[in-house]
Design goal:
The complex is a heterodimer of chains A (about 300) and B (about 170).
Chain A: H1 7-10, H2 13-40, H3 42-81, H4 83-118, E1 127-135, E2 144-147, E3 160-163, E4 166-174, E5 179-183, E6 190-195, E7 201-205, E8 213-215, E9 228-231, E10 243-249, E11 255-259, E12 268-273
Antiparallel strand pairs in A: 1-2, 1-12, 2-5, 3-4, 3-12, 4-5, 6-7, 6-9, 7-8, 8-11, 9-10, 10-11
Chain B: H1 2-14, H2 16-29, H3 37-40, H4 44-55, H5 62-76, H6 82-96, H7 98-102, H8 106-132, H9 139-167
Helix pairs in contact in B: 2-4, 2-5, 4-6, 4-9, 5-6, 6-8, 8-9
Classes of the chains: A alpha+beta (about 300), B mainly alpha (about 170).
């Protein structure tokens, strides 16, 4: 058997070593350059990322399906194990929800009659496109997932991704077939929100921990544990009133919010396609948030 | 004809280290449905590059390591270039220290990986903290580190099987 032939055979060993050192330094420099580029030219990086995600999407989608099927099976076994507790929980919840249904009916009537009085236009209808989460193990430095819907399904950058329970994140990069969702817990996530009681505006800032921080809240706003936080709609990419989470701690001046969405376990996300131009009134759209008592 | 086929097969097998690493990157990104797994997903690419740079440095080139890192950076959504940098350095370390690992037991290899995982985790954390000028939570990082260490034997076994099955006959340099 012959050893590798070709150029390397006649380049003298010391020279080859030098060349290798040079190539190593070059690649090292390129890597550091990339880190800096990622900070400077975000659009370029986003486009490249979306491009690569598009290429890999069919593979990831294909593998994600059997994985999801296995997960479903595990879930099925869990369901059977906990069927009694679950049944009890559902009964109590059902009783509670029936009361809410009553309230909702009354408010719906109220709302309809008030709308007639104001001669307001019909509710803004949003359309959704649902995508499967095809990648999430992005590591310790980022909280984002890839979904298998993209520009061809009408997904645009900045749109809201809704999971079971409420707001999960926003579309950060869009390819033709895939999109990256920046979760609300990510370091780079800044979500305009408001307190459901009182409507004080604030910004929900992610820091890679499971509980994002509530910032820029006006001084006179009264915070309490258990208060619900919803999107404020500032920025115009999605409507106000999407449930986000509840305040769980007020330790040393920083209020922390626990998202309603189980961020650690996302299967499907609905991307809300919200067209700002259809918004005729600047009235918030109530979306599955419990009604407030008006005085 | 058969010589040509043999040549093609050799070429294809020579790509195995790179391809196996890329597949591990994809597997590492899969949503496994375990709570918060994404944040502590083991560093599979790191294992692959560490393994191949020791045992088949001829087939895992520094360009290959950089490409794997870039692929992981682009797909994972983390800071671009960080994994490229980390895997380049790990590759350089693996290649330069391979004499230590080649003749020694798996335990030595495992310890070596533990050291590399510790240094890369700490270094990566420091770089990201600097980039964002904030202190990031350390807990997921420790989780990732522990999980990586725990899974490394399985990946080592898998890759060594691959190597024995397909690459033994390929002459090393």
């Amino acid at each position: 058997m012959t050893r590798r032939s070709g150029r390397s055979a006649w380049i003298a060993a010391p020279f080859r070593l030098l060349l290798q050192r040079f190539a190593f330094l070059l690649l090292l420099g390129a890597a550091i350059g990339l880190i800096l580029l990622g900070r400077i030219d975000r659009p370029l990086v986003e486009r490249t990322r979306a491009f690569v995600a598009d290429i890999v999407e069919p593979v990831l989608s294909a593998i994600a399906q059997p994985v999801a099927a296995i997960n479903a099976m595990v879930g099925w076994v869990e369901d059977i194990l906990y069927v009694h507790e679950e049944n009890f929980r559902l009964r109590t919840e059902n009783a509670r929800l029936l009361q809410w249904q009553e309230v909702a009916r009354r408010l719906e009537q109220d709302n309809a009659s008030l709308r007639r009085l104001l001669a307001a236009g019909p509710d803004i209808s949003q359309t959704f496109v649902t995508g499967r989460v095809i990648a999430d193990g992005a590591g310790s430095y980022v909280r984002s997932v890839l979904v298998n819907v993209g520009a061809q399904d009408g997904v645009k950058k900045g749109q809201a991704a809704i999971g079971p329970g409420g707001y999960a994140g926003r579309v950060a990069e869009v390819g033709q077939r895939a999109a990256r969702i920046l979760l609300l817990t990510d370091l780079n996530s800044r979500l305009p929100v408001m307190l459901q009681d009182g409507g004080h505006r604030a910004v929900l800032t992610g820091d890679n921990s499971p509980f994002p921080k509530l910032e820029y809240l006006p001084g006179h706003a009264k915070l309490a544990i258990g208060q619900h936080v919803v999107t404020s709609g500032d920025g115009g990419q999605f409507p106000a009133g999407i449930p986000v989470g509840e305040v769980i701690s007020l330790a040393d001046g920083a209020a922390r919010v626990r998202p309603f969405v189980d961020i650690g376990r996302l299967d499907f996300l609905r991307i809300m396609q919200f067209d700002e131009t259809r918004l005729e009134t600047d009235e918030p759209v109530l979306l599955a948030s419990p009604p407030q008592q008006q005085r | 004809m058969s010589a040509l086929l043999g040549q093609a097969s050799r070429r294809a097998r020579a790509l195995l280290p790179l391809l196996s690493s890329l597949v591990l990157v994809l597997i590492g990104l899969l949503p496994l449905g375990l709570p918060h797994f994404g944040a502590v997903a083991p560093a599979l690419a790191l294992m692959a590059v560490f393994y191949w740079s020791i045992f088949r440095a001829d087939l895992m080139t520094m360009l290959g390591a950089a490409l794997i890192g870039l692929f992981l950076d682009l797909l994972g959504g983390g800071p671009l270039g960080l994994n490229t940098l980390i895997l380049l350095l790990v590759h350089a370390l693996g290649v330069s220290q391979r004499r230590i690992f080649l003749g020694s037991s798996f335990l030595v290899n495992w310890s070596g990986f533990a050291l590399v995982a510790t240094v890369t985790a700490a270094g990566g954390w420091a770089v990201v903290c600097l980039l964002h000028w904030t202190l990031l939570p350390v807990l997921p990082l420790i989780g990732q580190w522990g999980l990586s260490l725990a899974i490394y034997p399985a990946i080592y076994w898998l890759l060594s099987r691959l190597e024995r099955r397909y690459l033994r006959s390929l002459a090393p340099i």
